[in-house]
Amino acid sequence: MRKPNYSQDRAQRERDKAAKAQAKAQKKLDQKAAEENAAGSGRPEGEPADAEDAPR
Q1: Residue 8 and residue 29: Cα distance in Å, rounded?
Q2: Phi, psi angles (nearest 5°) of residue 28
Q3: What residues have CB less than 8 Å from 51, skipping those under 6 apart?
Q4: Mean pLDDT computed over 30-46
Q5: More confident site: 25 or 44
Q6: Where does the record place the region Disordered (predicted)?
């Protein structure tokens, strides 16, 4: 019977932990971007950014 390779198990746990942390950070960035887009600059959607400055 072979001995279990604990170093491989540990390495896999480390990779899983790093992947989870990266996913959490990415989710946080995506959520922040979505909130900024939702808040926007107060213009109605579909209206161009320079519509307020356009001559009438």
Answers
A1: 32
A2: -65, -45
A3: 43
A4: 77
A5: 25
A6: 1-56
The pTM of this model reads 0.54
**Angstrom distance (rounded) from CA 35 to CA 32:** 5
Amino acid at residue number 10? R
Report how far residue 34's alpha carbon sits from residue 27's, in angstroms, rounded to the nearest whole number.
Answer: 10
Residues with Cβ < 8 Å from 49, sequence gap 6 or more?
Answer: 41, 43
Question: HSE of 53 in the Cβ direction (CA atoms, 13 Å)?
Answer: 3
Q: DSSP for 1-56? A: -PPP-HHHHHHHHHHHHHHHHHHHHHHHHHHHHHHHHHHTTSPPTTS-TTTTTS--
Q: Does residue 54 surpass a pLDDT of 80?
A: no
